[in-house]
Amino acid sequence: MLAEAQVPNASAAVTSLDDRRHDWTRDEVEALFALSFNDLLFRAQSVHRRHFDPNAVQLSTLLSIKTGACPEDCGYCPQSARFTTGLKPEPLMPIADVKKAAIDAKANGATRFCMGAAWRAPKDRDIEKVAEMVREVKALGLETCVTLGMLKPGQAKDLAAAGLDYYNHNLDTSPEYYGEVITTRTYEDRLETLGNVRDAGVKVCCGGIVGMGESQSDRVEFLRQLANLPQHPESVPINELVPVAGTPLAGAAPLDPFEFVRMIAVARIMMPQSYVRLSAGRTEMSQETQAMCFFAGANSIFYGERLLTTQNPQNEKDKALFAKLGIHPESRVDASAHLDVPLLGELTIETSGAQTSCCSE
Ligand code: SAM
Ligand code: DTB
Ligand code: SF4
Question: Are the beta carbons of 297 and 267 closer than 8 angstroms?
Fold first, then answer.
């Protein structure tokens, strides 16, 4: 563990407004986790305010466009054909039904529509159909995101050509713990898909799940993997395991809420310009824990009564929480106005002996 003086210090280390680092060491991340709760949250909130409106939260709505009967063995997932969870498999939805769901999501205030399919990897003919869905949803004025499993370079390019904004593909956990949860595809496979998505010019949505029985050391390594990618994912979903009866992880011990908040805070500090999404697990989470997550730098949620196959809080409940906290949904206009606010007393650089404030990226 690092001495206090070695804890990465946002104000001291940053010499320009581009505060994104890709060289996080294990000791540095451990030192962030070891901070007192107040110090960690203060630091995370300070980083957050540098780039974002602290009272704006982006709303994404999920739709399962192809449900269940998945050949993979992800130990958390109700959609794997290997587990008996009582889920009714559904084939790929007709485009008209997807469009209707997207219209509803927009009317409810979502700015991004995320379509998930329980595939190991899509076939090229699936990509054609999903590309059509992307075009339809985008034409409504929504941002688009899909999560379809492993993607080949040409498939990523076809989705990019259809106007896809984001591709979600999670690393889920540390490389060390990964094999305890999933055996049918490797960590390397996941990194390869993420590279294909990046190369196609599609924004990356990549995060994982906590509360699967992993250690804090696994959480440290998981966040290092994300932050030390060549580019930070633009969107980082942090899911708390939704335990589903019949899955191998159904009996996992619930995570201490403070550990969950710490996870959000450290993610915010390590990936200062990314949207950190407080993702699955909100139905079981208290309003107070969610409020702490927003203070720790979470600035996106899944909004709408369903995630893919499990429950999410009712819209009215989320609206009431936002009202209590003085939080507003981020509009697409807000999102395009990147803040980059220098904090008082930081972000100064030395140029030939004179101190100069740095004010652009
Ligand atoms: N089949 C595709 C794949 O695995 O890439 C896309 C859909 S998959 C359901 C998307 C993500 O949902 C997973 O990577 C996992 O992080 C998350 N997820 C699935 N089941 C979950 C659960 N029970 N609790 C929390 N997150 C879950
Ligand atoms: C992500 O990280 N979380 C979402 C989305 N990406 C696709 C999925 C959560 C799924 C929770 C379990 C379910 O509803 O099936
Ligand atoms: Fe299939 Fe995705 Fe579920 Fe894994 S997480 S079992 S790949 S749907």
Answer: yes
CA-nearest of 326, 271, 279, 319 to 300 is 279
Query: Taking the CB of residue 346, how many other CB atoms lie within 10 A of it?
Result: 17
Q: What confidence tens digit (pLDDT) does each residue in 114-162 have?
A: 999 999 999 999 999 999 999 999 999 999 999 999 999 999 999 999 9
- CA distance to 12, 45, 160, 290, per residue, from 282 (Å): 35, 21, 31, 7
CB distance 244 to ligand 3 below 6 Å: no
The CA R_g of the chain, rounded to the nearest whole Å, is 20
Query: What is the residue-averaged pLDDT of the chain?
Result: 90
DSSP code of 150? S
* Measured distance CA(216)–CA(288) in Å, rounded: 23
Give catalytic residue positions: 70, 74, 77, 114, 145, 205, 277
User: Whose alpha carbon is nearest atom 4 of ligand 3?
Assistant: 74
**Amino acid present at 237:** P
Separation of CA 70 and ligand 3 centre (Å): 6
Tens of pLDDT, residues 203-234: 999 999 999 999 999 999 999 999 999 999 99
Quick one: tokens of 180?
Answer: 């305890």
> Quick check: CB of 149 below 6 Å from ligand 3?
yes
Atom of ligand 3 nearest to the CA of 71: 1
Cα 147 to averaged position of ligand 3 atoms, centre (Å)? 10
